[in-house]
Design goal:
This protein is an all-alpha fold. It contains nine helices and no strands.
């Protein structure tokens, strides 16, 4: 997710401070789906039960507008990821589609197509998964996203063919 690495450095630093509770340091987080999603991921890495509180914060604010300076596409994609982590697959699918529609950076958009393919797999939507993987391929078969998409398409017999699961 664009910006997640930088936000992660700050969140990780706060989460690792001895004596700081989640309730205390989370007050410093901006009202951003990306910040709260990143907090949830850091807390999951640490095995903290507070990870669910961070995810719940994202989900509780699904109708919120992105904060000043935050990309609406990134805001939607972070919400989609939080919904996926909560296993709310249909809602995650819809948010990823909104994020993809709003994003102009092709590489970012293609990485979100990969995420959408994973969500479609959870929804048992093999044709949707294959369409998402085809979109993720892009035009350069040599970049990492394209290679992963091509590998996944080969595994399921994709490239326009119907897999056994969709017959």
């Amino acid at each position: 997710m664009p910006g997640e690495e930088l936000v992660g450095l700050v969140v990780r630093s706060m989460a690792e401070q001895e004596g700081w509770t989640f309730e205390a340091w989370s007050e410093a987080l901006p009202d951003s789906a990306l910040a709260w999603l990143t907090a949830a991921r850091v807390l999951r890495e640490q095995g903290s039960p507070d990870a669910e509180k961070a995810l719940d914060t994202v989900v509780a604010r699904l109708d919120s507008r992105p904060p000043e300076g935050c990309s609406p596409a990134v805001h939607r994609a972070a919400q989609a990821e939080a919904l996926a982590l909560k296993q709310r697959w249909k809602e995650a699918e819809a948010r990823y589609r909104e994020a993809i529609d709003r994003e102009r950076n092709d590489q970012v958009r293609r990485s979100w197509w990969m995420n959408l393919a994973a969500v479609d797999q959870k929804l048992l939507d093999e044709s949707g998964r294959q369409r998402a993987l085809e979109s993720a391929k892009g035009n350069d078969a040599n970049d990492e996203i394209a290679r992963r998409a091509i590998d996944l398409l080969k595994y399921t017999g994709g490239r326009g063919e119907r897999s056994r699961a969709s017959r």
